[in-house]
Amino acid sequence: MTSTALPRQPIEPMLAKIAETLPDEPGFQFEPKWDGFRALAFRAAGGLTLQSRDLKPLNRYFPELEQALLAQLPPGCILDGEIVIATPRGLDFDALQQRLHPAASRVQRLARETPASFVAFDLLGVDGQSTLALSQAERRVLLEGLLVDAAPPLHLTPVTHERAQAERWLAQFEGAGLDGVVAKLESAAYEPGRRAMLKIKHARTADCVVGGFRWYKDRTDAVGSLLLGLYDDAGTLRHVGVTSSFTMAMRQALLQELAPLRVGAAASHPWRASLEAEGQGPGAQSRWSRDKDLSWEPLRPECVCEVRYDHLQGARFRHATTFLRWRPDKPPADCRYDQLEVTTPYELARVFGA
Asked: Is 330 in the active site?
């Protein structure tokens, strides 16, 4: 390995762009796409730093990981990976979100009750030298050597060079809470901040009730996102996520189109109490950004739209959905959970051992 100084923190992680299907071309390696918090682990002689995707420190939220990685990793290495919470039911992203709590006592309690794991999938430095310029294949060999004796909560992500195997992972691993498959070119160097990988997710559609909207940033003449709902078996309309894939012209037009549905909507809206109880009512602040306003405007739940989504986490869409079209032919009462594809459960231990 060519001697190059170990890169200094922070480092922007290499990112992925969405692809419709797994690539057919040779020269790719495939890995599961873990559904957690992206993190870089910097092991120095004096300690260990966990860095988030947006370059912020994560140590205070995951003290059990800091201790475990400090004990297992040699000084002078940098790992790229994902912080996840593994349960008998698979990965639990909701429990992971709860770990970002400002109270130290709560952090310590959650570290005991819902301990996190670190899944490593790339190596940015080893033995005090940078590996950024090495090929993906070379970095993987070094990563496997570094983690040959790794023990939980530190894991090495599985990898395959067979497209057929990656197809099976795409079909099976979602049942363990994973989020798709990542394709990496074996000859590629590590490119911080660049979308140099491919991520392949499940693409599905659902018809949802539009139950409200949020304003676009600081404007009052444009819609930022639509709040989506589905009816459960008891006939209760549940808030399941948002869709926000609109041009500015569409955002302004939406405000006019939705105006009639705002009349009388607040008085008996089915989400008013539930959203406020979950900290998402008018004026509530986001756990991710204290400056983000999550106030919302209720709409009478009489309008239906079709959206594309990739993953259901519990009773909600894991990510923002993509708006496809309005469905004036669809009665809101028909927008139920039972229209969604059911994912076959899959044991998380089999993913780690793949």
From this structure: no
Round to whole Å and give the CA distance between 126 and 142. Answer: 8
- Of the residues 17, 33, 56, 201, only one is catalytic, namely 33
For the chain, percent of residues with pLDDT exceeding 70: 92
Q: Long-range contact list for 100-108, CB < 8 A, 24+ apart?
A: 100/61, 100/287, 100/288, 101/61, 104/60, 107/60, 107/61, 107/63, 108/63
pLDDT at 56: 94
Q: Domain boundary at 180, 201, 222, which?
A: 201
Q: Which domain holds residue 73?
A: 15-201
- Per-residue model confidence (pLDDT) at position 286: 47
| Cβ 123 vs Cβ 80: under 8 Å | yes
Give the closest residue to 306 by CA, choosing from 327, 286, 321: 327
Whether residue 100 is contained in a domain is answered as yes
Confirm whether 176 is domain-assigned. yes
- Identify the domain boundary among 147, 181, 201: 201
CATH of the domain at 286: 2.40.50.140
Mean pLDDT within 1-13: 85
How many folded domains does the chain comprise? 2
